[in-house]
Write a structure and sequence with these properties.
The chain is built from seven helices and twelve strands. The protein has 223 residues and is an alpha+beta fold. Helix 3 runs antiparallel to helix 4. The longest helix is centred in the C-terminal third of the chain and has 15 residues.
Length: 223
């Protein structure tokens, strides 16, 4: 690992080991580029508060550790009246890990505000499928009339669920999946759901921002 950008302290990862920048040498949100999607590298990244976001035109993976981290305690999710109705709607069937690949591909296909294209390409899909086969990555799916209409996926790192992405094809489907994630997390003593970066959708569910330093404190206590 060598320093690539002195001003912003961005590091070029070494292909021969799986080391990542530590908190004390991080400056910007983008902390490293390069490397590959070896399962051990990915696991090391999440254990060090880092996640891959996209691959650039030169085929470099970009690794992030946001200075402001969006998180949620599972038992603090906000459930609106309309969402309660959707949760109680017996038409929705919620399952876990029944079709991980379908969930991640659906997340890749959903068009999102302020994004021209998805970061979830075939390399990402294969990488997280590998983690799923190793019982590190998990999905929650929401079905309606036997059709997958919403869901999410992420990684379980110690007692923290690191959420990666979610999708919804009908109203409230992803929120129902997220509610069930919080329920399962509470039941299994998962302390925190890492939502990575701010967005209005997550804020409406009760997620909030903390400093990178605070996230690392929680991370170190729970892995």
């Amino acid at each position: 690992m060598k320093l690539l950008d002195k001003k912003n302290k961005i590091y070029l990862l070494d292909d021969n080991n799986f080391d990542f920048p530590t908190l004390d040498i991080m400056k910007d949100d983008l902390v490293a580029v390069g490397g590959d999607f070896h399962p051990q590298r990915l696991l090391n990244a999440y254990e060090n508060g880092i996640f891959p976001w996209y691959i650039d035109d030169y085929n470099y993976i970009h690794w992030f550790s946001p200075q402001k981290r969006m998180v949620l305690k599972p038992d603090e999710m906000k459930v609106s009246k309309s969402l309660k109705k959707s949760i109680l709607n017996k038409s929705f069937i919620v399952k876990s890990n029944e079709n991980f690949e379908a969930v991640i591909r659906a997340c890749a296909e959903i068009k999102r505000k302020h994004e021209d294209s998805t970061w979830i390409n075939e390399d990402f899909i294969q990488a997280y499928k590998n983690l799923h086969h190793l019982d590190i990555a998990f999905s929650i799916e929401c079905y309606l009339n036997d059709e997958l209409v919403g869901g999410l996926y992420g990684l379980l790192i110690g007692n923290i669920f690191c959420g990666e992405s979610m999708f919804s094809k009908v109203t409230d489907a992803s929120k129902v999946a997220f509610y069930h994630l919080c329920q399962q997390a509470t039941q299994n003593d998962i302390k925190l759901i890492d939502c990575q970066v701010y967005n209005d959708h997550l804020a409406s569910l009760g997620a909030y921002e903390i400093s990178r330093e605070k996230y690392f404190e929680i991370l170190n206590e729970n892995i």
